[in-house]
Amino acid sequence: MTHSSRMTIRRMVVAVALPAFAACAMIHHDTPPAAMIAPEQIRLADDVHLAGEGWPSARWWSQYHDVQLDALIDLALAHAPTLAIANAHVSQARAQVELIRAVSGLQMSARAEADRERVSGHGFLSAYANQDPAIGAYGPWYWTGLVGVEAHYDIDIWGKQRDLVRAAIGAQNAQRAEAAQAELEVSSDVAWLYYTIQIADATLDLLERLRDESAFEVETREARHARGLESLTQTQQARSQQLAVDQQIAQTREQIVHVREALRALAGVGADALPEIRPVPLPAPSVSMPSSLSYELLARRPDLQAMRWLVQASLDRVDAAKAEFYPSFDITAFFGFNALRMRDLFLHSAQQINLIPGLSLPIFDSGRLNANLHGARTASDTLIDQYNQAVLDAVRDVAQSASQIDDLDHRVQLQRARIDALRFASDSAQAGYQTGLADRLAATQAEEPVTQARIALVELSGDELEAGIVLIRNLGGGYRDDALPGSAAHDAKPEPDR
């Protein structure tokens, strides 16, 4: 082939290729991504504070110094079905990453075929339909064979497969954060159920004391009525109060049974595997809150980290959708043996080598690619909006929990002052009974308000414990993702600014 002939062919190729590139599918419309929440919005109001400062530790429940609680949470973290489900989701996401990575790599396979066919006398191989030994024709029936190795590789020039891999990794990281969130929920739920039982036990002790006081009043009223000193009305009123206390005792005992069953189901163990829960004194609330939240809250809340990874994955999918508009290149190769007769299959002359570079260019797709890009962008913007709202909700939850704890602490102090005042009146009545200035019934009646006030104090202490556990959960427990925005570890990852 002469030089002029080669130049003519090149001009023809360019003439054909340029219109094809010019006629490829175009991005008709795309919008910038939705804005992420600003750091100054991740803060508490100036009037929200607690006495102590700091984030929860990894094993935050150890601050209560209760070996029973430690054992129950360890048991639940080892056997809870919700954690098994969360870990299964992590494994599934990991498998998806491996699958997408495998698709983007070199694909090789062995191939072997044997075919019994009759050659058509009017087809491309019609010469082999007759007997012609000179050309190797012994037709019309033949055993044909093919054996070899074929390979295929997509050249990821525009990063489509790389973006899909990153999106899958983002989804995997989101599942890991959700697994951490599940652990936080299990540990906090176990702690609250455990203290619900402890609060019920403490309340039950006080109710039984109150019942003894009511029973003594009933006996005294009955004796006075028998001697004609009091009417039956006063006796029935005392009996009504005793029955009300009996109802409270029955409800409290039923609550202990129900909560214990809820704890057993949460831990994922049988009835015999749940250890005995012995009554212990309620711990003094020990809660604290950091002086500032900002990006640190994002790193310590596993649910926010999960959403952030999903946002990152959605942005990678947008990039992959954009790459669909560009030409794709691939190479297919084959090396092996191909023969019209099986006895010639492994002859040197039967060797076959194929090397096929490929180019695929979208020209007209009825708007499919643009619809796909629009869908990916809309899904990403929706996730960003949901993430922003979740961050604001997280700040609100922390503020409300801290404010509730501050209010409950004040109410507990007032209740203790009220108990002291009632105790003074009870002690005075008891002293009068000891000196003969008052009867025993008056001393007993003066003790009943003290017992009722102590029951109310136990309930307030329980509310304060619950609020402390909720605050710990709202702060993320002991979770922390070191890939903070602005840190070196985070800067190595792509930011959602596309």
From TrEMBL:
Source domain of life: Bacteria
Cellular localisation: Cell membrane; Membrane
Q: Which InterPro entries match?
A: MdtP/NodT-like, OMP_efflux
Q: Which Pfam families match?
A: OEP
Q: Which UniProt keywords apply?
A: Lipoprotein, Membrane, Palmitate, Signal, Transmembrane, Transmembrane beta strand
Q: What is its main location?
A: membrane
Family label: Belongs to the outer membrane factor (OMF) (TC 1.B.17) family.
What is this protein's record name?
MdtP family multidrug efflux transporter outer membrane subunit
What is the source species?
Pararobbsia silviterrae
